[in-house]
Write a structure and sequence with these properties.
Blueprint (H helix, E strand, L loop, with lengths): L2 H22 L6 H7 L9 H8 L3 H13 L3 E6 L2 E9 L1 H25 L1 H18 L4
Helix pairs in contact: 1-5, 2-4, 3-4, 5-6
């Protein structure tokens, strides 16, 4: 199996489990919406920035933001640096989902560590962080 699949399969499982926990806690959103939501900067992001970060078209990003706004997870506010532009910001409702996702992430990491061992888990984290140095354009 190639390295891409070896990286993707555990990630897909992790993402599905986190989304299931978030949804079970009453935060109804899709994976596509969550992926976009994760990319919003702390002070807010312009739609074009979100589209680029999520690697989707501006139209797709706009559609997802519309859905997130209707659900109460984001709001659009004027950009203080450009009166014509708007920023997408997360709301308190979205922030309330973070501890749910974080708790599920901790459960998954603990499960993985029990399965592969503490040393290997540390090595995996170290190797992935090192790869991030050359693969993450937003680092």
């Amino acid at each position: 199996m190639n390295i891409g699949l070896l990286l993707y399969i555990p990630y897909r499982d992790l993402e599905n489990r986190i989304m299931a926990a978030v949804t079970a806690a009453g935060f109804d959103m899709t994976i596509a919406q969550a992926r976009l939501l994760q990319r919003i900067n702390p002070g807010g992001s312009r739609l074009t920035e979100l589209a680029e970060a999520a690697q989707v078209t501006k139209q797709t990003a706009g559609f997802l933001v519309d859905q997130l706004e209707k659900a109460g997870f984001v709001q659009r506010v004027p950009d203080p640096t450009d009166g014509r532009a708007r920023l997408v910001q997360v709301t308190d409702k979205a922030r309330e989902a973070v501890p749910v996702a974080d708790a599920e992430m901790a459960r998954i990491e603990a499960e993985w560590e029990r399965h592969i061992g503490k040393r290997r888990m540390a090595q995996l984290r170290d190797a992935l962080e090192k790869l991030g140095e050359i693969t993450d354009p937003y680092r």
